[in-house]
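Chain A, query sequence.
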Amino acid sequence: MKVGIDMGVAAGGAAAELDLEELLATRLLVQGNSGSGKSHLLRRLLEQSAPWVQQCVVDPEGDFVTLSDKFGHLVVDATRTEAELTRIAARVRQHRVSVVLNLEGLDIEQQMRAAAAFLGGMFDAERDHWYPVLVVVDEAQLFAPAVAGEVSDEARKLSLGAMTNLMCRGRKRGLAGVIATQRLAKLAKNVAAEASNFLMGRTFLDIDMARAADLLGMDRRQAEMFRDLDRGRFVALGPALSRRPLPLTIGSVETSARSTSPKLTPLPEAPEDARDLIFTPGPEEVRPVRRPPPPPPTPTVDILAQLSRPKPMAPPPEQPVFAIIDEAEREAGISAAIREILEDEDAAFRSDAVLYQDFLVRCRIRRVPGEPLPLKAFRRRLAVGRAGVDAEAAAGEAWSTALTLSEDLPDDLQGVFLVVARAAVSGEPCPSDAVLARAYGSHSARRARRLLAFFEERGLLVVRTDFHGKRVLAFPDLGCETAPGDPDAPDEGIPTRQAAE
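Chain A, predicted structure.
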């Protein structure tokens, strides 16, 4: 089905149509200096295509959140953990909801990490959810920089990798990248090179004009025309737009950005008491405290004499400075709080960050003394507690080896590994896919099977099937294996005999 998107008016007065189906297969690159109308162009494209295709907007300035009022886009505030953003992105693809990822208020490194996590979640969605999605990234040079900047190498690699996946490998997964940048020279070449459609706006630097002319197949002498383009005017080229360079003017939009270009407004009349208004502090202002002049410098002889004197010994304190903490009482309080969390049936499907906040509140209610348990240690205790090993098995050498092996796994996989290891140590049937999915915080049985394949690739266990079609997990390092278990059995809840070890 061919869907023509009205982008405005082309040269000669004809309608400038964009083939949406072709755009989904060939991607789009928009370039223009600040104030050339890039955001207006993206807004026109999003508004016109909203009824036809799911959309995801990576919005660093919060300009596109107004789409939610008119077109029903869901605004996702990026002030969340990276793991939570990844899970939200997977659910966005599953339920085919158009969203705006609002990165406003974050510094550049936080924006790069949040965008990388969200785009990664959309890219890694299950094959059954590979529906077409128009992924619009404004100010793409922030997320795919051509050279390293002031951000850390890790954040730059994460963001650049996500943008490369979007533009290079996203087509087969239904992701169509539309990226906008102020300067082509600032954008990574391997990201820009994957676009087959181009809309070039006003630009002034020679290097950017030359690259724009090369991309449009124009003569270098024609590159000067990009300096003369008015706001909202672009030159289009590509299979979804035009086979020859085509000047066009972007049409009007129904929504507006929260931030607008500065407008000249007349100055107010100068008040008669302007001097008093400026130099007299208001009642809410705190008067600065005048510091006394510094004391005269101490002679060098006196400094040497002070250093040569023996330091007097401080008398021992009669009472300890800090209160003595009963470690047994603290450990009992922490274990009780974790046990209460694990007894909640919905806890398995909540993020670690949410559970950690609940844990801190429970510790305050119980008045657990000492510093709160760090997040990393809490995740470890939670993973061990979810395994539900009994006291007799926990005292054995096999369980101690299982705990050591799990320390090298990512935090979100330790609990799943310990669940299957506990079943092997205790000689219980192999957990079903539903049980493993619950331990991972998911409802997907396919994802649970992938976790077992990951453990097998790491050499931690061996998966085999007996003659009755039941699954057995053998652990070479533990010297034990699970009893045969039905992988398709329903989840009847994970026992939690022991909440902390």
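The chain is about 40% helix and 15% strand. The mean pLDDT is 82.
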